[in-house]
Specification:
This is TnsA endonuclease N-terminal domain-containing protein. With 238 residues, the protein is an alpha+beta fold. The protein has helices spanning 2-20, 40-45, 65-75, 122-134, 144-148, 151-166, 173-186, 191-194, 200-215, and strands spanning 25-27, 49-52, 59-62, 80-85, 90-92, 95-97, 101-105, 108-115, 138-143, 189-190, 219-221, 233-236. It has two domains: 2-148, Trna Endonuclease, Chain: A, domain 1; 168-236, Arc Repressor Mutant, subunit A, CATH 1.10.10.
């Protein structure tokens, strides 16, 4: 047993040496906290977006449209429990590097970089992947194009999140039970048939209830191809 332990330790050292012999990587902290830049020039030179989320309750800052959409997709996935934009400040060969996003999927932790066509310097990608693996993180490079393909879905989730945040003090427990009962009896139903279109107050609470259930993953909304509307299909999650 002791011999096996030393063999594993030796393999880990060799693994680290293989990844880090050419590229030096340092981090101030591996606690994911959004890194804020005071460079106004950077903010003016990029697509700059601000929004608060439920899974990231601070004011999130994004420096590109794909980053902004990606955050909404994370918010809309009930298996993702939290995320942090620009989570770490690293020094790679004495140059600052800030990944685009960190998120927790079930029990796994991911560090994400978004790039046009997924083009990321291979001399950096392999060492970063090895470095984060040593810390218990999975490092992935996603293409901007793969995120932009889901633009409609992401924008729908942005709308849902903004609605839910504006309704934090509104209790919808009764409405949620009513919607779950109706869907269990009738099956897949149009959004407009779940809410009282002519009753403004009831309409608001039922709409919020639908969005809360969808956010928790208890019901599914068909949000991929067009903006959410009264004909959007709603169903219980299996």
């Amino acid at each position: 047993m002791e011999k096996q332990f030393f063999q594993m330790a030796k393999q880990e050292r060799q693994f680290a040496q293989n990844f880090f012999s050419d590229v030096r990587i340092e981090s101030e902290s591996l606690t994911p906290i959004q890194q804020h830049s005071s460079a106004k020039k950077l903010n003016r030179a990029t697509d700059y977006y601000l929004q608060r989320f439920i899974k990231f309750p601070q004011i999130a800052i994004f420096h590109s449209y794909p980053e902004y959409l990606h955050a909404a997709l994370l918010e809309g996935n009930p298996l993702i429990t939290s995320f942090v934009p620009q989570p770490f400040r690293l020094l790679v060969q004495n140059r600052r590097y800030v990944p685009d996003c960190f998120y927790v999927f079930r029990t796994k932790r991911y560090v994400i970089e978004l790039k046009p066509e997924g083009k990321f310097d291979t001399k950096l990608k392999k060492p970063l992947k090895g470095y984060f693996k040593q810390q218990g993180f999975n490092f992935k490079v996603l293409t901007n194009e793969s995120i932009l393909k889901k633009e409609t879905l992401a924008l729908n989730w942005h709308h849902i999140v903004k609605t839910l945040l504006s309704a934090e003090m509104i209790n919808t427990d009764t409405e949620e039970l009513k919607i779950m009962d109706q869907l269990s009896v009738e099956g897949e139903t149009e959004f407009g048939l779940l809410i009282k279109i002519g009753d403004r107050l009831a309409n608001q609470k039922l709409e919020i209830a639908v969005f809360r259930l969808a956010h928790r993953g208890q019901i599914a909304l068909d949000l991929k191809d067009r903006k959410i509307n009264y004909s959007t299909m709603v169903a219980l999650c299996s």
